[in-house]
């Protein structure tokens, strides 16, 4: 008998559950072995508001004639049909919106996820094709971003009245252990050369020792290793020269370069640590949060990046942004003097460095300084006004928001190596982001044809 009850109760098994009404509950249990038949197509199963439909509608409007002209398999000639380039582009755009950055994972989604199956439309995929397509068409992706911005400017959604620029440091695919000093790199170069010579000697001595495919794979790997080590030595010399110019003494901390990704550089990250990374620059229209400029560098600072971005936007759109909103990392005197032109109504909004320290010393950080150019004086005095402070607040709500969205969509670490390939991935992020913004502006009725 239980001490907590007045009368002895019968034992109840774990499956004998009694509901509040006193009876055994009736449940609808899963019947996973039940055979069913659904007469539905993949198109009928996909919701009408799925992102895959939005991406496909955008891709169908893109001019991919350049890719079609490169296909060798044509009607009337031998050759296996290739996958439609529109499918490959749409798959990567949707994968970017979903935060997928690996070609193997995208290949698995094409078999298991309804949205990706709908895009494929029974066209088989493999990760090699997906991986190659992402990094082989940098020029095409750059043109697509230009066309995106041009269309949105035609609909008066993007005006370039105010553009916010910010940098986001993204981990490179190279590991810390791949960085070597000059002496170690030279030893690696000697070993790589010996490896190539040894493989060539083996082929000459016994051509039948390995299959043709195996020999080709070994030789290709040896050549790539040799090229990367040679590039790493060149990069190490460049980093060493930059350290010598910056500090005057680089012997205390000799330069290093990566043998797997020679163009990556060690940078200070947002968490305070140092990792191999790239610096991704994004320029965003403050009115619509549409990305209008993309650049990737291997410089650890944002200084000197504003001028090239303004030139890129002007080259891409034919219009120069009137207001450039940047943080203190961009506020170098050379860049401000280069971009700030109040006579032409081109203004830079950037915080004055060490303003708080100057106030504590009783100095006015916004007062003109002797020997400054007219452009710097105008920028300095204007940043002390209330109007400039209100305009500068737009930077955080646009550039910081776009950076946060990029992080959510997987821009944590690149899965490719080399500046050109990394730039292609950054362009994909910008195009995918603009597709989402285009659809939002379209739904909200913010798009209108110029002249109406």
List keywords for this structure.
about 450 residues; alpha/beta; 3 domains; 6-stranded mixed sheet; two-stranded antiparallel ribbon; 8 strands; about 50% helix; globular
- Cα distance, first to last residue? 87 Å
Task: Please provide the ordered H/E string of secondary-structure elements.
Answer: HHHHHHHHEEHHEEEEHEHEHHHHH
Individual helix count: 17
Strand content: 5-15%
Which spans have pLDDT < 50 for at least 5 consecutive residues? Answer: none
Multimerization state? single chain
Q: Please tell me the overall pLDDT.
A: 85
Helix content: 40-55%
Question: What spatial form do the alpha-carbon principal axes imply?
Answer: globular
The total count of strands amounts to 8
Summarize this structure briefly.
The chain is of the alpha/beta class. The protein has 17 helices and 8 strands.
Give a description of the structure.
By secondary structure, the chain is α/β, with parallel strands linked by helices. The chain has 3 domains: 42-67 and 83-136, no CATH class; 138-173 and 267-443, no CATH class; 178-258. 48% of the residues lie in helices and 10% in strands. The protein contains 17 helices and 8 strands. It has helices at residues 42-45, 51-60, 65-69, 85-97, 103-112, 114-120, 127-136, 138-154, 182-205, 212-247, 306-317, 333-339, 355-360, 374-382, 386-392, 394-408, 419-443, and strands at 162-171, 179-180, 257-258, 265-268, 274-285, 291-297, 323-325, 347-349. Strands 1, 4, 5, 6, 7 and 8 form a 6-stranded mixed sheet that branches. Strands 2-3 form a two-stranded antiparallel sheet. A hairpin with a 5-residue loop joins strand 4 and strand 5. Helix 2 (51-60) packs parallel to helix 6 (114-120) and helix 5 packs across helix 7 (127-136).
